[in-house]
Amino acid sequence: MLPIRRALLFGLFLAGHAMAAGAGGTLPASNRVEVFYFHRTTRCHGCLDMEAFTAAAADRFPAERLSGRLTFRAVNLDDATDRHFAQDYALDFSSVVLSRRVAGQEAAWTNLSKAWELVGDQTNFTAYVEMEIAAQLKQLSGE
Predict the structure, then answer these.
(1) Coil, strand or helix: which one is 79?
(2) Closest CA relative to residue 93, chosen from 85, 102, 103
(3) What is the mean predicted confidence (pLDDT) over 13-27?
(4) pTM (2 decimals)?
């Protein structure tokens, strides 16, 4: 991927975080879908792309992001406070996980296992993550 394109994606990623976490932002709703990108401290280009593409997919749901019904969080599994996620979600390497929370409790979670197959194809990667997010949001609405 061209450095300029990567910088643009990272800028969009940061803007999405600022919008969700900035002044006047909303707290996560008790019924929500959490999009996690789990990684280690040392990351390859594919890992960095996976994070940027996942953030971009989450940002395609602006109303849900602003309401707190959809959150995105990148988590370093090497950080002491976040190591438990590796066991919680049976993670051995960088992964995208969706967690559906109802009344503040995790009701279901899904590891998006096709993410690594698609990381070289931004269009299909983003479409895959968007589709999975939409399905989880639909399930959330039905509960």
Answers:
(1) coil
(2) 85
(3) 48
(4) 0.81
